[in-house]
């Protein structure tokens, strides 16, 4: 029982070779390129959804920030579909690995910060001090704001990892509890099964929400710095 | 029985089992060749089941079911001792 809990999170291997890259590239197979004016149903639905989310995400940015729209939409679609595919039984979720989320969060956050420092140096430095602080608090507050700036990529990555990992773990635990309870007391097993159903619905929602939150926060960091 | 079209252009599902070894020998195993085979396979499935006039959810769900089966096979070793049994 102790070792089995975390085996869904181990790197998937096929004949001793890790196939993580193939699994990360699998969602791209589900997005064919539209090559006509009026496409088949799958592409039409995807195009409609993409337009909807891109308008929602990018309408608060100025034209300079909107140059990042391709980046944000691909990020959002990638995280959403990787999380949703991870809800299938026995599948591997790449976004449950901290290494991958750090690899996504740190470059994006660093990009927004560097862009802010290069283009609007004074304003970026001014962000480190909230308006209207008493004079004697200034040194400490600048330090605190710097620390909170550097925590942003860590928080982005750990938030996504922890949410997905915790959700999957809970599902595994409650599922095995339901199975174990069936022989002992059927009524308790039914209650546990109801909890399992509710949790599954929650997990689907979390998969979508986490992608949205990740992208939204990066876009907020961009807005600060554009 | 020899087939009518040249051996190299025959699709895998049309090859008869007895002719399979000779079909494998005519295939191109360079990286370019393998990439081309995957591309052809993808578009064969896509054009037959997804990009049709009244495509339905079946085209996508078959792919997801195959993905699930693939993951089941890859992680079989890890859960084969978790099956409901009297003594573990």
How is this structure best summarized?
The complex is a heterodimer of chains A (226) and B (88). A two-stranded antiparallel sheet of chain A has the order 1-2.
Keywords:
heterodimer; A: mainly alpha; B: 88 residues; mainly alpha; phosphoprotein (chain B)
Task: Explain what the structure shows.
The complex is a heterodimer of chains A (226) and B (88). Chain A is an all-alpha fold and 226 residues long. Chain A has one domain (7-225). Chain A contains eight helices and two strands. Chain A has helices spanning 20-25, 41-58, 63-66, 69-85, 98-119, 121-126, 138-182, 186-225, and strands at residues 13-14, 17-18. In chain A, strands 1-2 form a two-stranded antiparallel ribbon. The termini of chain A are far apart. The mean pLDDT of chain A is 86. Chain B has 88 residues and is mainly α. Chain B has two domains: 10-50, no CATH class; 53-81. Chain B contains four helices and no strands. Chain B is extended. Chain B starts with 19 loop residues before the first helix and ends in a 9-residue tail after the last helix. The model of chain B has no long low-confidence stretch (mean pLDDT 82). The A-B interface holds A 4, 7-8, 10, 12-14, 19, 26, 29-30, 32, 39-43, 85, 88-92, 179 and B 42, 46, 50-56, 59-60, 63-64, 67-68, 71-72, 74-75, 78-79, 82, 84.
Query: Structural class of the secondary structure composition of chain A?
Result: mainly alpha
Name the shape of chain B in a single word. extended
Which shape of chain A, going by the Cα principal axes?
globular
Beta content of chain A: under 5%
Number of strands of chain A: 2
How much of the polypeptide of chain B forms β-strand, as a percent range? under 5%
- Number of continuous helical runs of chain A: 8
Poorly predicted runs of chain B: none
- Most residues in contact: chain pair: A-B, 24 and 23 residues
The number of helical runs of chain B is: 4
Strands of chain B, total number: 0
**If strands are numbered along the chain, what order do they take across the biggest sheet of chain A?**
1-2
**Oligomer classification:** heterodimer
Uncertain runs of chain A are none
Task: Please indicate the count of domains of chain B.
Answer: 2
Query: Taking Cα atoms only, what radius of gyration of chain A do you get, to the nearest Å?
Result: 22 Å
Q: Approximately how much helix is present in the residues of chain A?
A: 55-70%
Listing every helix as H and every strand as E from the N terminus to the C terminus, the arrangement of chain B reads HHHH
What Rg of chain B is obtained from the alpha carbons, in whole angstroms?
A: 19 Å
